Amino acid sequence: MKENESVSxxxxxxxxxxxxxxxxxxxxxxxxxxxxxxATSQKPQAVLDALxxxxxxxxxxxxxxxxxLSELATDAYESSxxxxxxxxxxxxxxxxxxxxxxxxxxNMVAASYVATVCKPGDEILLTVMEHHANIVPxxxxxxxxxxxxxxxxxxxxxxLDLEAYAKLxxxxxxxxxxxxxxxxxxxINPVKTMTEMxxxxxxxxxxxxxxxxxxxxxxxxxxxxxxxxxSAHKCYAPSGVGLLxxxxxxxxxxRPYQTGGSMIETVEFERSTFLPPPMRFxxxxxxxxxxxxxxxxxxxxxxxxxxxxxLHKLNLQRLLHDRLQxxxxxxxxxxxxxxxxxxxxxxxxxHPHDLATILDSEGVxxxxxxHCAMPLxxxxxxxxxxxxxxxxxxxxxxxxxxxxxxxxxxxxxx
Length: 414
Ligand code: PLP
Prior knowledge:
Blueprint: H1 9-17, E1 33-34, H2 45-57, H3 68-87, E2 96-99, H4 102-117, E3 123-127, H5 136-145, E4 148-152, H6 162-168, E5 173-179, H7 191-200, E6 204-208, H8 220-223, E7 227-231, E8 242-246, H9 248-253, E9 264-267, E10 272-274, H10 288-302, H11 306-324, E11 330-333, E12 342-347, H12 352-361, E13 364-365, E14 367-369, H13 374-380, E15 385-389, H14 396-412
Parallel strand pairs: 1-13, 3-4, 3-5, 5-6, 6-7
Antiparallel strand pairs: 2-8, 7-8, 9-10, 11-12, 12-15, 14-15
Helix pairs in contact: 2-10, 3-10, 4-5, 12-14
The protein binds pyridoxal-5'-phosphate.
Pyridoxal-5'-phosphate (PLP) binds at residues 101-103, 131, 133-134, 179, 183, 208, 210-211, 231, 233, 242, 372.
């Protein structure tokens, strides 16, 4: 589909119908207008069905039982790993560690890989647009191992300043960790170029894909990064599951992150030996039903006309920017050329929390605050922003509701 084409109403209506929560009303009695998908996505019926189906007819623990039901659950769980691996590109299932979320996956790389290879004085390069999940684990490690953290700044549009990035990279850089898509600005970062540049100085690369996986096509082998992380709950699936993709040689040299059942080869009173990746990093009972439901979410997405989905989101993003620009007292933060429909803004008069409360009384769910990106807000010199984040299940009427809520708020504060 071409960029100036529009997506048929029936397509959009069908996508919305797939998400039962969109037919509900809020506590204020108004129909729910959900504009907080960057915090967590809504779940389609196919995912709800997968959860029910597992608990109704397949529930057993995995990897342990030698009875039929446990084998069924294990097969469903491991085949879900394969589906999830396919979804992030040409990644082999052995390269895919199932974690409890993106946060745990980043902590795992910091503790089990970087902690073992870095030496005092080495540098970790982050960007000013990172989520706390991709800042704090590195700060803890830096304190412990005497590492130095540096941050890549932004240009005026809210894109990363690649010239500054090039200058910050050096043979001291041991790890570069950056987000694929900003959860505040919506900016899509040039991850392949950034990875090539980091590799050229011998640094390893971790990409935080928490906001990218639900919005754009991801192929880890094309990007050629060393690690990639994401969370299921942002990808139309349940919470409690995430992924860590790792290059096989790196996963192989990594220490276990947590220990216990499921990750051991042998346990003696004196010592234990561990399974190869990915099982080495999956101690304890995993989130079985949630992982199976994540695979169902991917299958659901595959069943959609993905060109139409992409175009619809582009149209929504343009419409959202255009409509918000109709409010002279409102400032949008983030105008990068390549972005997803995530828009954060401040108002000259109305505090983001007041704005979000008034919008809530109109049924419109937006996020207000620092969105777990306090350093970015400090960099932008604003204490907080209001964020509207859209997905393919939103439509133009949702943007109308946001605009109406903003008009009401301005009248109240006039
Ligand atoms: N990275 C980014 C860019 C995010 O937006 C989030 C969550 O909002 C995370 C990491 C952390 O994800 P989770 O809380 O699912 O581990």
